[in-house]
């Protein structure tokens, strides 16, 4: 029993020292789920960067459209993010990412900024942090890029996204000095 308490103490110290809290919640657990659409500066955060993989695609060709389920998912994301002070929406040039981003961009009355997907997300992350020091930014990526974008933002380990998983939603809250105030991940939106 002493080992359990010791382990809990070590975990608590590590979490406190990293300056970043993380919450993983299952999308089906609505009662305890934190909404991404509740951005507040009370924690000291001045910006929130939301990262998702594109929604469900129709087929596996090079540039497919979203399925009906994918369009529904993109619309749910827009509804959830609607209350937030959106300042930018980024998506790769592919139809599936543009179509996932479009409802949120429309809700926020913004254009979608196109970026090229890259194995190294550092240039995109630096641009987003520099160009949007306050407000909420949405970045729509791919299974092979979304988790690396989040890892670059929070400086933490983020598991890769499965090729068949379209529901991961991440957000990273940043203080004015660039410090991570909060990092959260949900498996469904």
UniProtKB/TrEMBL annotation:
EC number from the UniProt entry: 5.4.-.-
Signal peptide: 1-18
Domain of life, per lineage: Bacteria
SMART domains xref list: PGAM
Keywords assigned by UniProt, alphabetized: Isomerase, Signal
InterPro entries assigned: His_Pase_superF_clade-1 (IPR013078), His_PPase_superfam (IPR029033)
Pfam families: His_Phos_1
Any one Gene Ontology molecular-function term assigned to this protein's record: isomerase activity
Enzyme class: isomerase
The protein's name in its UniProt record: Phosphoglycerate mutase family protein
């Amino acid at each position: 029993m002493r080992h359990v308490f010791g382990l809990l103490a070590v975990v608590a110290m590590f979490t406190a020292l990293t300056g970043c809290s993380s919450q993983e919640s299952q999308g089906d657990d609505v009662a305890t789920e934190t909404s991404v659409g509740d951005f507040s500066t009370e924690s000291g955060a001045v910006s929130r960067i939301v990262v998702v993989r594109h929604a469900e695609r129709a087929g596996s060709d090079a540039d497919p459209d979203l399925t009906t389920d994918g369009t529904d998912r993109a619309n749910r994301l827009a509804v959830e993010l609607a209350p937030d002070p959106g300042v930018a929406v980024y998506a790769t040039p592919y139809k599936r990412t543009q179509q996932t981003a479009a409802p949120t961009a429309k809700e926020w009355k913004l254009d979608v900024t196109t970026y090229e997907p890259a194995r190294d997300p550092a240039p995109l992350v630096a641009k987003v942090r520099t160009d949007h020091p306050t407000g909420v930014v949405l970045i729509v990526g791919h299974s092979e890029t979304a988790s690396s974008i989040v890892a670059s933002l929070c400086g933490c380990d983020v598991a890769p996204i499965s090729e068949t998983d379209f529901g991961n939603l991440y957000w990273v809250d940043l203080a004015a000095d660039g410090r991570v105030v909060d990092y959260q991940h949900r498996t469904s939106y």
